[in-house]
Design goal:
The chain has two domains: 51 residues, no CATH class; 214 residues, MetI-like fold (Orthogonal Bundle), CATH 1.10.3720. Helix content is 72%, strand content 0%. The protein contains 13 helices and no strands. Helix 2 packs across helix 12. The longest helix has 32 residues. InterPro entries: MetI-like (IPR000515), MetI-like_sf (IPR035906). Belongs to the binding-protein-dependent transport system permease family.
Length: 276
Amino acid sequence: MVSRRSQTMSYVVLLLFAAFAIYPFISTTLVAFNAPDVAVSGLAIPREWSLDSFISAWNNPDAGIGRSLLNSILLSVSVVVVSVFFSILTGYAFGTMRFFGSKLLFPLFILGLIVPYEATVIPLYYQFRTLNLTDTYWSMILPCIGGSMAFGTFWMTSFFKSFPKELLEAARTDGSNRWHTLWRVIVPTAASPIFALATILFIWTWNNLLLAVVMITQPELRMVPAALNYFVGLQYGSNYQITCAAAIMVALPVMIIYYVLQRRYGADVLAGSLKG
């Protein structure tokens, strides 16, 4: 039995961590709702709530927040759809089949989780420049898919290894081939890990700053992390209201998705970790 004192200490620690986590968001939000020409500090509540900072950030021609949001949505959705689809296939193969080279191929996939992502960006840039792929959507989509496949393969393989063998045998007895077994028997029961994987990959892709800065220089192809970087320069670096407003707009799409689906997301992450 857990003592009352231990429970109290646990709640205190959790509240402290929650306060540290939520403070930057509350502070950023309060600063963003001040007018650009008003002095601000910390958690001070605005005397007059204003949307002028959001309007100034949105209308900034150098950053192009609106176009950047569309670019990031296109990138994130494309990466998630393709990565989840192929992660299901690779996870199904490694988790339920035994074939020549499987013990060698799986560690090669997992190698993508070990090698620091930053170490691959510069070599990728030179390769894509040789292929004339820099300043294109492909220069973002292909590396993001490649990076997502490492984690996606590991995640889905863990699920498929724990899938009841009796159901697979029953499907084979009924005459179902491997392809039909995957999509008609396994995938309908794998909504939890698939949903959790899609959510994680979306957030990872959306927040990818380094690749967006290195691969993309044309303003019409800029992603939101790179667009937000424009507000930290000499022109807007001292105007915290506009910078915070831009940060809120960049984070808002992910925050909305996470807030709406937070209960299921938490349960799915727990289920995926237990299956691993």
